[in-house]
Amino acid sequence: MIQKLLGYYRRIPKRVTSVLFIIAVVVFLVLYLKDTDFGRLRHLHIDWWLLLAASAWTLAFRYWMVLIWRVILRALGSEHLPPFRVMSYVYAKAWLSRYIPGTVTWIAARIYMASSYGISKSRLMVSSLLEGAMQVAASTIVSMIILGLNPHFDLVPLVAKVLVVIVSIISLVVLFPPIFNRLMYIAFSVFKRQPNRDLHINGKAVGWSFVLFAIGTFINGTGAFLLILSIDPTTSLATYLYIIGAFGISGAIGIAVPFLPSGLGVRDGILLVLLAAIMPKEVALVVTVFSRLWLMAIDVLFLGAAAGVKHLKADDHPEKV
Question: H/E element holding 7?
C-alpha cells in the first residue's frame, strides 16, 4: 500500500502535490467537522490560561516525536540528516496527512517529502513503521500499567480491556527485531522487490524509541490533564495518572487503525468510555468532542510553527549527526 502511494506521488510534480495535499486535508477536516455535535460545547466555560498551558505541552509532544524519529534514524545508521527545524517541518506536514485518511498516508507522505533531503527511502519506511508501531506499543504498555493500578479502571467494560491487551501484545511481537525484519522481507518479496539492509531494525532503535515514547506518554498526558482542568475545574489531581493512561491508550489505538482519518471514531469512542469512569458522562462527552477539535487545531499550529522556523534560514542541507 505504501509503495503504491509513493508511486502515485512520484508521477505528480512537487508543487502540484503540495496543493493537492492541502486541499485533501481541508476537505477531510471539513467532512469531520460537519458531523461534530457543536451543541455539546454551547455552555462550555474555558479557563484560557490552562488551555494555553495544555496547548504548549501538547505542541511540545509534537516536537518530541520529531526527536524520536531523528533518534531512530541515527540508530538505523543514517549519518547525514537535515537540520532539526527542517525535519520538524517535514514531520508536521506529513502528520496532517493522517486526516486524508490514516496512518498509511502519513507514512507515505513522510517518505516522499523526507527523501528529497537525501535520506534512503527504505530507511525512511522502516523508521516510520517502527515509530508508528512503537508509539502504539509503548503508549499502550505504559497506559495499561497506570490504569491497572487505578481503582477506576474496574468500571471500564471488559471488551475495552481485552482490545487494549490484544493491541499491546501484537505490537510487542511485531517489534521484536528478527520478526520485524522477517516481515519486511516477506512484504518486499510479495511485491517482487529486492530487500536490502536498510530495511532492518536493531535492538538499539527499538530500545531508544520505547524509552522516549514512554516519556512522551507523560508529556502528552500532562497536556490532556490541563485541557480537562480548563474545562472542568473540579477535576481532582488524583485523576492525573488515570487521564494520562486514558489519552495514551485511546490515541495509540487510533494510530493502530490505519485507514481511518487520525483514528476518528475509534479514538473518541475509547476515550469516552475511559473518561466516563471518572466523571459524569455528559462531561466526558464534552471533553471528548472538544479534545478532538483542539488536537486538530494543535496539528495546524504545529505545521505553522514548523514552517515559520524552517524559513528563518535558507540552508537546508543535511548535517552529519
Answer: helix 2-10
pLDDT tens for 248-276 read 988 887 776 654 444 445 677 788 888 88
pLDDT of residue 258: 52
Check if the beta carbon of residue 77 is closer than 8 Å to that of residue 47.
no
Contacts of 280 (CB under 8 A, 6+ apart): none
- Residue where the block lists cell 490514516: 102
Q: Which three cell numbers stand for residue 134?
A: 512503537
Nearest of 320, 300, 309, 321 to residue 86 by alpha carbon: 309
CB distance 220 to 271 below 8 Å? no
* 81: helix, strand or coil: strand
Where do we find the cell 509503548?
Answer: 138
Q: End-to-end alpha-carbon separation of the chain, Å?
A: 31
- The Cα-based distances of 265 to 42, 106, 122, 273, 288 in angstroms read 21, 18, 32, 12, 10
Give me the pLDDT at residue 301, please. Answer: 94
Q: Which residues pair with 320 in a beta bridge?
A: 80
Give domain limits for the chain. Answer: 2-34+47-312
Cα 87–197–111 angle (5° rounding)? 30
Q: d(Cα 16, Cα 96) in Å, to the nearest integer?
A: 17
Written as one letter, the residue type at 201 is: I
Exposed, middle or buried, 28 (CB in 10 Å: 0-12/13-18/19+)? buried
The x, y and z cell numbers of residue 91, run together, are 514531520
Q: What is the mean pLDDT of residues 155-173?
A: 71
154 pLDDT band, cuts 50/70/90, is confident
Does the pTM exceed 0.90?
no
